[in-house]
């Protein structure tokens, strides 16, 4: 059994402040950021964190001390209560329990930590071992499977204005040959040889005997003796379907769309998981999005920039608006069309026009003279 006091370098009577101070010092010494790529330092840091997680909490520390007392107690009073008996004898009598939770309460995520306290799976522990890796077949699925995530590309204007896109997606459905059971037609599930059909196995460590779900049959007590030839025992087959997906108005790049019940098959009695679509917005030749605002470059002729003009602009929704270009407009000048950006339901963004003044590459003799006269009028070209 691990000695957390020894790991943190403190005595069993150390105060909470002493434990905290020692942990901070050692954690800083072995922190992975200070030892990149050093697996030993990383393991040491995890061990320190594990020890501190228990000893910093008064209630967990008290139960841990109780565990150490039981684990280190020698002998079997009355010749009973040996390893695997499910009993622990102390000077005050015996305690019966089926698992650590019965004796030490609910530790939540610390359950895995207490597993490591007794080094289950290591030397000296009696642990049933499966002759093959556990396989999650249709008959062992008792919980809703994980959701499926898929990236989809959406045109820029569809993402802004909303609409529909057709996409081809892989969808898991119940196998029509075995009706989703994963078992070959005409055959039946067999009793799991690992747990004898009980759905649980027992592990022993010293005085402690702990029951846990059988990993081979996933706690069902049965295994698939003859898998379905079509789905290979999974109970489900993947089919590719083209579906129409509604794109919400104003969705952002990386936004998610959930399609309920379109994910993985959950077994004959289970529910299907969801399909999560992650949106990738395609780039547009003319428009660029910044938050709820839209930016667009518009070509302006040189004479329009110099003399001023009125030009027609097409916004994202296809609306045509007239923009007044004042005389002397410089390249890169920015004009705002208020409220013509993205409507997110709460407020509307703006539409910004960036003037891209087109400089002619060739001028006629007459045009050259006009520009010379213009330059002279403004005190240049002398």
Provide a descriptive summary of the structure in words.
With 382 residues, this protein is of the alpha+beta class. Helices cover 23% and strands 27% of the residues. The chain folds into three domains: 4-81 and 89-117, DnaJ domain (Helix Hairpins, Orthogonal Bundle), CATH 1.10.287; 138-189 and 227-281, HSP40/DNAj peptide-binding domain (Sandwich), CATH 2.60.260; 287-377, HSP40/DNAj peptide-binding domain. It is built from nine helices and 17 strands. Strand 12 and strand 13 (293-301) form a beta hairpin. Helix 2 (16-30) runs antiparallel to helix 3 (39-55).
Describe the secondary structure blueprint for this structure.
Elements: H1 4-8, H2 16-30, H3 39-55, H4 58-72, E1 87-90, E2 93-96, H5 100-104, H6 111-117, E3 148-154, H7 156-161, E4 163-174, E5 190-191, E6 200-205, E7 208-213, E8 222-223, E9 236-247, E10 256-259, E11 275-281, E12 287-290, E13 293-301, H8 302-307, E14 309-314, E15 320-325, E16 334-337, E17 351-358, H9 365-377
Parallel strand pairs: 3-11, 13-17
Antiparallel strand pairs: 1-2, 4-9, 5-8, 6-7, 10-11, 12-13, 14-15, 16-17
**Overall geometry:** flat
Helix/strand-derived category reads alpha+beta
CATH topology of the largest domain: Helix Hairpins
| DSSP strand content | 25-35%
What is the level-2 CATH architecture name of the largest domain? Orthogonal Bundle
DSSP summary, beta strand count: 17
What's the N-to-C terminus distance? 95 Å
Low-confidence stretches: 72-142
Order of helices and strands: HHHHEEHHEHEEEEEEEEEEHEEEEH
CATH-wise, what's the superfamily of the largest domain?
DnaJ domain
CATH class wording of the largest domain: Mainly Alpha
Mean pLDDT: 75
Q: Roughly how much helix do the residues carry, as a percent range?
A: 10-25%
Kindly give the count of domains. 3
Calculate Rg over CA atoms: 36 Å
Strand order of the largest sheet: 12-13-17-16
């Amino acid at each position: 059994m691990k000695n957390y006091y020894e790991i943190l370098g403190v005595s069993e009577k150390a105060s909470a402040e002493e434990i905290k101070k020692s942990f901070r010092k050692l954690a800083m010494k072995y922190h992975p950021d200070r030892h990149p790529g050093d697996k030993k330092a990383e393991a040491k840091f995890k061990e320190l964190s594990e020890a501190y997680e228990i000893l910093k909490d008064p209630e967990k520390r008290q139960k841990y001390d109780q565990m150490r007392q039981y684990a280190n107690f020698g002998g079997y009073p009355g010749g009973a209560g040996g390893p695997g008996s499910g009993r622990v004898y102390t000077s005050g009598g015996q305690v019966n329990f089926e698992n650590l939770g019965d004796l030490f309460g609910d530790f939540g995520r610390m359950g895995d930590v207490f597993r490591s306290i007794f080094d289950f799976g290591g030397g000296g522990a009696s642990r049933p071992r499966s002759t093959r890796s556990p396989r999650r077949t249709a008959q062992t699925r008792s919980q809703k499977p994980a959701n499926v995530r898929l990236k989809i590309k959406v045109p820029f204007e569809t993402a802004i204005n909303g609409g529909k896109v057709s996409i081809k997606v892989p969808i898991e459905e119940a196998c029509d040959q075995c009706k989703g059971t994963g078992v070959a037609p005409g055959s039946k599930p067999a009793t799991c040889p690992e747990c004898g059909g009980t759905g649980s196995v027992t592990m022993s460590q010293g005085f402690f005997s702990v029951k846990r779900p059988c990993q081979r049959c996933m706690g069902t007590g049965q295994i698939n003796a003859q898998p379905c030839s079509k789905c290979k025992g999974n109970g489900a087959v993947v089919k590719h379907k083209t579906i129409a997906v509604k794109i919400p108005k104003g969705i952002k790049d990386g936004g998610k769309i959930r399609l309920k019940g379109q994910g993985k098959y959950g077994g004959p009695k289970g529910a299907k998981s969801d399909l999560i679509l992650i949106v990738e917005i395609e780039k547009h030749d003319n428009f660029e999005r910044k938050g709820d605002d839209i930016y667009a470059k518009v070509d302006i002729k040189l004479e329009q920039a110099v003399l001023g003009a009125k030009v027609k602009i097409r916004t994202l929704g296809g609306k045509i608006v007239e923009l007044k270009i004042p005389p002397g407009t410089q390249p890169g000048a920015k004009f705002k069309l208020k409220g013509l950006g993205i409507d997110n339901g709460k407020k509307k963004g703006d539409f910004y026009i960036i003037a891209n003044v087109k400089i002619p590459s060739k001028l006629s003799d007459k045009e050259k003279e006009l520009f010379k006269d213009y330059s002279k009028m403004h005190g240049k070209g002398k």
